[in-house]
């Protein structure tokens, strides 16, 4: 399967689903909302959007998607999470609800709402390893950051300026990628294109 014909789902339970669908389509993927297990089975990869991680966690259980997504991610399905999606891909979440569950996929510790509340949202330049061109104009909204990563997790990007300088905001482990910021909210499609290309390569190697 080529990158341009890859079917990439967006978990459509809560959050900025429409923006990710549009960005993926512009990057050449067949973009589909995923709300049910049978829809998950029809995609080659999954994007977990920003939103509210505790709500996404609860709705994933309600819609019987928690275990199916865990199994697909554990089996190597390409997955990308932005903001709340980063939290959902973490193996450990700090400052979350005691009953909050995640999909896992990236061996990292993430601090929920680390950058502050909604009023503390900000924008900053972030360079992403492996994606050429200028820095990303990164939008952070009640964003997490990564406090610790295990061996085998590649740090792709950090905040470069301000009081949070040095904080990890983009990571990758195998086919799982996460950012603390929202590339879908800008017109820059390089990260979505990079992920769609990753999906295509994964499909080729699985043949």
Automatic annotation (TrEMBL):
<keyword id="KW-0456">Lyase</keyword>
<keyword id="KW-0378">Hydrolase</keyword>
<dbReference type="Pfam" id="PF01174">
    <property type="entry name" value="SNO"/>
</dbReference>
<comment type="subunit">
    <text>In the presence of PdxS, forms a dodecamer of heterodimers. Only shows activity in the heterodimer.</text>
</comment>
<feature type="binding site">
    <location>
        <begin position="51"/>
        <end position="53"/>
    </location>
    <ligand>
        <name>L-glutamine</name>
    </ligand>
</feature>
<keyword id="KW-0315">Glutamine amidotransferase</keyword>
<dbReference type="InterPro" id="IPR021196">
    <property type="entry name" value="PdxT/SNO_CS"/>
</dbReference>
<feature type="binding site">
    <location>
        <position position="112"/>
    </location>
    <ligand>
        <name>L-glutamine</name>
    </ligand>
</feature>
<feature type="binding site">
    <location>
        <begin position="141"/>
        <end position="142"/>
    </location>
    <ligand>
        <name>L-glutamine</name>
    </ligand>
</feature>
<comment type="pathway">
    <text>Cofactor biosynthesis; pyridoxal 5'-phosphate biosynthesis.</text>
</comment>
<keyword id="KW-0663">Pyridoxal phosphate</keyword>
<feature type="active site" description="Nucleophile">
    <location>
        <position position="83"/>
    </location>
</feature>
<feature type="active site" description="Charge relay system">
    <location>
        <position position="184"/>
    </location>
</feature>
<feature type="active site" description="Charge relay system">
    <location>
        <position position="182"/>
    </location>
</feature>
<protein>
    <recommendedName>
        <fullName>Pyridoxal 5'-phosphate synthase subunit PdxT</fullName>
        <ecNumber>4.3.3.6</ecNumber>
        <ecNumber>3.5.1.2</ecNumber>
    </recommendedName>
</protein>
<dbReference type="InterPro" id="IPR002161">
    <property type="entry name" value="PdxT/SNO"/>
</dbReference>
<comment type="similarity">
    <text>Belongs to the glutaminase PdxT/SNO family.</text>
</comment>
<comment type="function">
    <text>Catalyzes the hydrolysis of glutamine to glutamate and ammonia as part of the biosynthesis of pyridoxal 5'-phosphate. The resulting ammonia molecule is channeled to the active site of PdxS.</text>
</comment>
<dbReference type="InterPro" id="IPR029062">
    <property type="entry name" value="Class_I_gatase-like"/>
</dbReference>
């Amino acid at each position: 399967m080529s990158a341009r014909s890859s079917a990439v789902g967006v978990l459509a339970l809560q959050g900025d689903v429409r923006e990710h669908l549009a960005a993926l389509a512009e990057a050449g993927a067949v973009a589909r909302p995923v709300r049910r297990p049978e829809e998950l089975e029809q995609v080659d990869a999954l994007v977990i959007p920003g939103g509210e991680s505790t709500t996404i966690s609860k709705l994933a259980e309600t819609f019987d998607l928690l275990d199916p997504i865990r199994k697909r991610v554990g089996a190597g399905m390409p997955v990308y999470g932005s903001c709340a999606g980063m939290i959902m891909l973490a193996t450990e979440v700090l400052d979350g609800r005691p009953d909050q569950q995640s999909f896992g996929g990236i061996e990292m510790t993430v601090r929920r709402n680390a950058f502050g509340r909604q009023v503390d949202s900000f924008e900053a330049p972030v360079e992403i390893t492996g994606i050429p061109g200028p820095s990303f104009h990164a939008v952070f909204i009640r964003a997490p950051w990564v406090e610790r990563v295990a061996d085998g997790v590649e740090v792709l990007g950090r905040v470069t300026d301000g009081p949070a300088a040095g904080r990890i905001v983009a990571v990758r482990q195998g086919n799982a990628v996460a950012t603390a910021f929202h590339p879908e909210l800008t017109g820059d499609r390089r990260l979505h294109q990079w992920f769609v290309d990753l999906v295509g390569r994964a499909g080729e190697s699985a043949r």
